Amino acid sequence: MPESAVLFKTQGSQDQEVVVTTGLEIFSMLKFFKRKITLILTFIFACISGICPLIMVKLIGGVTTDLSLGESQEEGDFMKSIIKNIIRMAIADAVMLVTNLISQCLKSFCTPQFAHDLRSEIYGNLIVKPIEYFDNAQTGTLIARLSEDVTLIKEIYCDKAIEASKNCAFALAGVIIAFTTSWLVSLICVATLPLIITIFMLTEKCVGHMWHMYNDKSTYAMDKAEEVITQFRTVKSFDNELDEYEKYAESLDGVDSVYTKSASIQGFEYGILTFIENGLIIMLFYIMCYFIIKKPKYGLQPGDCITLIISVLIAAMGFAGMFSSSDDFRRANISSRKVLSIINPEVKDNEVPSKPEIKDVTGKVQHALNNFNMTVEPGQTVAIVGESGSGKSTVLHLLQRFYDGYEGEITIDGRNVKDFSDKSICSNIASVPQTPVIFSMSIEDNIKYSHPSASNDEVVSAANSGNAHDFINNISQSYNSEVSQNSLSGGQKQRICISRAIVANTPIIILDEATASLDTESESLVQKSIENFHGQKTVIVVAHRLSTVKSADIIYVMKEGRVVEKGNHEQLLSLNGVYSDLVKYQLQ
Hints:
By secondary structure, the protein is α/β, with parallel strands linked by helices. The protein is built from 19 helices and twelve strands. It has helices spanning 25-28, 36-68, 75-126, 131-135, 139-181, 183-190, 193-230, 232-237, 241-294, 302-340, 392-399, 422-426, 443-447, 456-465, 469-473, 490-503, 520-532, 569-575, 578-587; strands at 358-365, 369-376, 381-386, 411-412, 415-416, 429-432, 441-442, 482-483, 508-512, 538-542, 554-559, 562-567. It has a six-stranded mixed sheet with strand order 6-9-10-3-11-12, sandwiched between helices. Strands 1-2 form a two-stranded antiparallel sheet. It is elongated and about 120 Å long. The two termini are 44 Å apart. Its main location: membrane.
């Protein structure tokens, strides 16, 4: 017969997910954008619509020049030139309208899909995380990844980035038209760029740090609210509502404080840049007038003055629009970094043997297990008992590979469980927890939750084995009855959970103190359910009530993380040791 060994020891430190911060994490999100061609076309049409206004500006300059030279031209040529430029402006305006419409339609087509794909990717990676991950994570933080962070990333790609591309087209086209109109005057304008870039870089560093603090404090406030709402009965029972309110208000004050500082810095940046921009326009207007009147040899016309001033103004607006989006890009980059800390596409896909056998389980877990040894033969019912904190549930958690932080090895049929994927482990081990979980769906769907393709006959058979069939039939709509977590008694819910474990048809079933919170009658029914598959499956039971484990083939008695006694009920009683003391204590 194949043999298996299991050795446990928790490590002092836990593995942490490390994401290398490059400052460009937002671009890593593009791989989750399935409609990339649509996105590229959206950018292209947005850029075209951004160039059209500059073309119109160039044409307006031509019309202005024609008007200023009207007296020196023949009337026919003068009107032909005016009409030709006006027709070109109308065409440019029509192109801008069409490209804007196409860009908006394409954006509305790809935006919802991107949010859907990204949320699905995050959720898909979350649900395969080990239990240890959720032990160390705040629920509010994980919800924020699915909601706020996805929304922010979506807005960057589908709104801000498209707008930034249009602003970029504005800026580049404005610069090109300005230089083709008068390279000398344009160079004078370019001389102000170092000052603008210096101001932007200084505020960029300050605001980036502020937004990181803002994001962390917002997440903390959300976690605090989620914690109080989910545990409100405890808060209410100790009359701590006002105290919790003050703590939450204090966390919001921290958020507001950071936001105020960030907004102040941004306001200063915007004010300075606007001042420089307006000063540049005034200076440009003066220089153009000077060249037209005092330096006619440069050949500048009044229309060139209009063209140059408006093109520089639009270019400045384009650069300002790009700079104004930088704050959103910073925030989205932080969100992308946090999303990437969740997404981990590597999942092993090795199958556990069809007939797993667990034998020679030896383990040592810091603070919980100490040289723990356990052997389970296929088809046996094995029980683990002991005082609270002795490490009973830890054995089950490590066996199901909820935690990997231990020394030694856990093997099934001689193969280390670390070589198996989490999915393979879970598909061969069904678990019944101490607190039964019922989903808001029909009883049949609740039972089939572990095996969605199970037939009606398999569901009924599992319910019979789980001693749930009779009470289900007494409900008005039987298996089709819609239930929720609060609509059934504890015993009924637990029997449905046992039926769910049975219909999964796994070789191993684990029950973690499944009768701890039940009354005597419900406990008896659950006990009969366990006995119904005795010998057919390998059953491992952790129990506080010893009446549940009297019929077990082997009972392991734990104390301070190690096995101190082993045997069946009668053998352990005859030892007059720890197990006997536990029985006497419960009989008192």
